[in-house]
Write a structure and sequence with these properties.
heterodimer; B: about 220 residues; 9 helices
Chain lengths: ~170, ~220
């Protein structure tokens, strides 16, 4: 535990130090290069903002509508068959759209069922192996104006379902 | 009046042009559909439950959240792009992609090994593995832009783009420090107990997504 925390707190300083020191060693104009890159980065960030507003507003509406509760209610009959806790179903859907929404659902689960319950463990592992699919898809494909995303969503969802199933199986065995 | 008319005509012409440009890739446009379904469906559900009064506030809050996120993200993305530019110019990025080449060559057989796209892809994947999300975003976008230069059917994702995005969205992060700290905050007996299981689950989801991608790629030929 302590080792992980230490590694985590050391990672960024080490990366930054290494990049700058190596840059100086290779006689790169580090300051100029940094500002040049930062300018491009700002442009990237600005180009993402419209998609961000669109997605976050939509997610807000979805959370307000109680659709997540309905999903977990719909899963309830299947819970007895699969033993997969219905409290986690909303988390899987929230995570597809935004990490802040998913974090909200996750902390709800932690509060209501405890971090070390089956639901808490499954939720924790699940959060590690899933990504915000639709957010990533829209910010990466928007700049190149790709409209036909072919099989990307299908395959990603398949991977996600496998990850969720694996999380549940592992959490059950813990 | 004439001026206004001309202006309108110009705008009309422009929008027609845009429409033509957009319709090159006649695809499924998943994001469009999903976004529309969420908004329309969400509003309808709110209407059924009599929560419509809260929608305007919620929308405004949403824009605020997005702009707040942008303020945080904008700075972080700019900073990481700056460091990455240094890394690019000093040759670290090339070195990194050299290290990852054996794996990347298999995943992206059609990209020339020393193409810029490979550099950005290796940068993006390593940033994601370390959990540096803000550093991953700019390199990911650059990678997709480079991949688009190799695209002969604009508007349609290439095989490489599909593979790259699928790997990206299947999560390759090794240690999710956020989850550990949330577990700590909510009084877990062993917050880090999920680290190893998390890595296994991540490996499974990534491998499953990659195999599905390869399978689809072959099937479409």
């Amino acid at each position: 535990m302590k080792v992980i925390m230490l590694l985590n707190s050391a990672a960024i300083p080490v990366i930054v130090m290494f990049i700058v020191a190596y840059g100086v060693h290779k006689k790169v104009d580090v300051f100029d290069a940094f500002t040049e890159g930062a300018k491009e980065g700002l442009e990237t960030a600005v180009s993402i903002l419209p998609a961000l507003i669109a997605l976050i507003c939509a997610i807000r509406i979805l959370r307000l509508s109680g659709a997540f509760d309905i999903l977990s209610f719909l899963w309830r009959p299947l819970e007895s068959v699969t033993h997969f806790p219905s409290e986690i179903v909303p988390l899987a859907f929230a995570k597809m759209f935004s990490s802040s929404a998913a974090t909200g659902v996750l902390t709800d689960i932690f509060q209501n069922y405890g971090t070390d319950s089956l639901a808490g463990r499954t939720a924790s592992i699940m959060m590690c192996c899933t990504e915000t699919i639709f957010y990533t898809l829209s910010i990466y494909l928007a700049p190149v104006r790709v409209k036909d995303s072919r099989y990307i969503v299908k395959c990603t969802l398949f991977g996600m379902v496998c990850g969720i199933a694996a999380s549940f199986v592992i959490a059950s065995g813990m | 009046l004439l001026f206004i008319n001309n202006f309108d005509k110009k705008r009309y012409k422009n929008s027609i042009k845009e429409l033509n440009e957009c319709s090159i890739g006649k695809g499924e446009e998943v994001i469009n559909k999903i976004w529309a379904v969420i908004l329309v469906g969400g509003c309808m559900l709110c209407f059924l439950q009599g929560r419509t009064g809260k929608i305007p506030d919620e929308l405004l809050e949403g824009t605020k959240e997005a702009v707040d996120l942008f303020m945080v993200m904008g700075g972080a993305v700019a900073m990481w792009s700056g460091f990455m530019k240094i890394a690019e110019k000093s040759g670290i990025v090339e070195l990194l992609s050299e290290i990852m080449l054996p794996v990347l060559k298999r995943l992206f057989p059609k990209i020339p090994p020393h193409h810029k796209a490979m550099h950005y892809i290796s940068m993006n994947i390593s940033a994601n593995m370390l959990g540096l999300g803000w550093a991953a975003t700019p390199s990911g976008i650059m990678a997709v832009k480079e991949l688009d230069k190799l695209n002969c059917k604009k508007g349609r994702a290439t095989d490489e783009m599909c593979m790259f995005l699928i790997i990206n969205m299947s999560s390759v992060q090794l240690i999710s420090i956020n989850i550990i700290s949330y577990r700590m905050k909510y009084g877990s007996a062993d917050p880090a107990a999920i680290v190893f299981p998390g890595i296994i689950a991540t490996a499974i989801s990534t491998l499953a997504a990659i195999s599905a991608c390869k399978w689809c790629e072959r099937k479409e030929k």
